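In the current project phase, the collection of sequences with tokenised folds has grown. A representative record is quoted in full directly below:
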Amino acid sequence: MIGYGATSGEIFIRGLVGERFCVRNSGALAVAEGTGDHGCEYMTGAGCDPRTGRRNFAAGMSGGIAYVLDLPEYRVNSEMVDLDQVDPEEDAKFLREVVERHYGETDSAVAARLLSDWDTSRFTKVMPRDYKRVLSAASQAEREGRDVNEAVMAAAHG
């Protein structure tokens, strides 16, 4: 278990990690080149960028975003999350910066290959539905000049 219960910081791992990567992660940015089963289980915040194990990715995930390379849909526990395309502007910029940092920190051959032939279409954005709803409500409240906290609370309660 790497990143279990992390509340802040960053983890850049060259290579594969075992089962239960970033379980209960609520604030750390974590990058690995592959995970075992049960990755990002009960994750409540921050981000994660692995290839997934055989099963149960994102089970109980209620917050944060995971960007996963070459994600087979059948490996995801989709009870609470949506599998979205990467936004070509905002997400792509963030992903590129993270992969560049991963390469800089680890000299990763995987990151080097990704950067040499950059294509965000291979990534899937794993996003909890409730988290997406709350972020959308906050963004709309900001645009309309309404109280963001009130909008978030209203969205969080359905």
Notes: The two ends are 33 Å apart (CA to CA). The helical segments are 90-106, 109-116, 129-144, 148-156.
